[in-house]
C-alpha cells in the first residue's frame, strides 16, 4: 500500500478512532496518543492492510485493544485525572441550564461507563459513530442479531438508570 492509498483508506477514519479512544480513556491527550500509536502501527504494517476486508474495522479493533490495554495498566489508573466538563458555548443558556446539562452529561457518561465492555462499544459505534450493523459485525465479529440484542440491552440499561436517578431526585 502506498502513501496515496493509505491516505484515502486510513486517514478519513481518524475522527472516529479518536472519539472511540476518548470514550474509553476519558482524556483528550491519552486519546490523541492512542490514535497516534494506531496510525503509526497501521503505517508500519501498511503492506498487510490489503489482506483485510475492512481496514476501518481493523483500525477500530486496534484502537479498542490499545485503549483496554491502557486502562488495565497501573500507570494509567494512577495518573488518570478527573473528566473535565465541556463549556457550552451558547450565550443564551442560563447558568442553571448549563449546570443541568453538565449534570445530565456526567450522569450519562457514568451510566455508559458502568456498562459491560461489549455493550459500551456497540452503543458507541451505533449511536455515536453511526456505524451500520454490518460494519459493527465486522468490528466485533458478532452476528447482527447479537448486536441488536446487546444494543437494546445497553440502551435499556442506560435509560433505566437515567430515569431511576431523575425520578429519585424529583421525589417520585
From TrEMBL:
<dbReference type="InterPro" id="IPR036388">
    <property type="entry name" value="WH-like_DNA-bd_sf"/>
</dbReference>
<keyword id="KW-0804">Transcription</keyword>
<dbReference type="GO" id="GO:0003677">
    <property type="term" value="F:DNA binding"/>
</dbReference>
<keyword id="KW-0731">Sigma factor</keyword>
<dbReference type="Pfam" id="PF08281">
    <property type="entry name" value="Sigma70_r4_2"/>
</dbReference>
<dbReference type="Pfam" id="PF04542">
    <property type="entry name" value="Sigma70_r2"/>
</dbReference>
<protein>
    <submittedName>
        <fullName>Sigma-70 family RNA polymerase sigma factor</fullName>
    </submittedName>
</protein>
<dbReference type="InterPro" id="IPR013325">
    <property type="entry name" value="RNA_pol_sigma_r2"/>
</dbReference>
<dbReference type="InterPro" id="IPR013249">
    <property type="entry name" value="RNA_pol_sigma70_r4_t2"/>
</dbReference>
<dbReference type="GO" id="GO:0016987">
    <property type="term" value="F:sigma factor activity"/>
</dbReference>
<comment type="similarity">
    <text>Belongs to the sigma-70 factor family. ECF subfamily.</text>
</comment>
<dbReference type="InterPro" id="IPR014284">
    <property type="entry name" value="RNA_pol_sigma-70_dom"/>
</dbReference>
<dbReference type="GO" id="GO:0006352">
    <property type="term" value="P:DNA-templated transcription initiation"/>
</dbReference>
<feature type="domain" description="RNA polymerase sigma-70 region 2">
    <location>
        <begin position="13"/>
        <end position="74"/>
    </location>
</feature>
<keyword id="KW-0238">DNA-binding</keyword>
<feature type="domain" description="RNA polymerase sigma factor 70 region 4 type 2">
    <location>
        <begin position="108"/>
        <end position="157"/>
    </location>
</feature>
<keyword id="KW-0805">Transcription regulation</keyword>
<dbReference type="InterPro" id="IPR013324">
    <property type="entry name" value="RNA_pol_sigma_r3/r4-like"/>
</dbReference>
<dbReference type="InterPro" id="IPR007627">
    <property type="entry name" value="RNA_pol_sigma70_r2"/>
</dbReference>
<dbReference type="InterPro" id="IPR039425">
    <property type="entry name" value="RNA_pol_sigma-70-like"/>
</dbReference>
Amino acid at each position: 500500500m502506498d502513501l496515496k492509498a493509505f491516505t484515502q483508506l486510513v486517514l478519513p477514519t481518524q475522527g472516529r478512532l479518536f472519539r472511540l479512544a476518548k470514550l474509553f480513556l476519558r482524556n483528550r491527550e491519552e486519546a490523541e496518543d492512542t490514535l497516534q500509536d494506531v496510525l503509526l502501527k497501521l503505517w508500519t504494517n501498511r503492506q498487510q492492510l490489503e489482506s483485510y476486508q475492512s481496514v476501518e474495522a481493523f483500525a477500530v479493533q486496534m484502537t479498542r485493544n490499545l485503549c483496554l490495554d491502557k486502562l488495565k495498566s497501573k500507570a494509567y489508573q494512577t495518573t488518570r485525572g478527573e473528566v473535565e466538563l465541556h463549556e457550552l458555548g451558547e450565550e443564551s443558556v442560563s447558568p442553571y441550564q448549563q449546570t443541568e446539562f453538565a449534570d445530565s452529561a456526567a450522569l450519562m457518561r457514568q451510566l455508559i461507563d458502568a456498562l459491560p465492555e461489549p455493550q459500551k462499544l456497540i452503543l458507541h459505534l451505533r449511536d455515536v459513530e453511526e456505524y451500520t450493523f454490518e460494519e459493527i459485525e465486522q468490528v466485533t465479529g458478532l452476528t447482527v442479531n447479537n448486536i441488536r440484542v446487546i444494543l437494546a440491552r445497553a440502551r435499556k440499561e442506560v435509560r433505566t438508570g437515567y430515569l431511576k436517578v431523575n425520578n429519585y431526585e424529583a421525589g417520585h
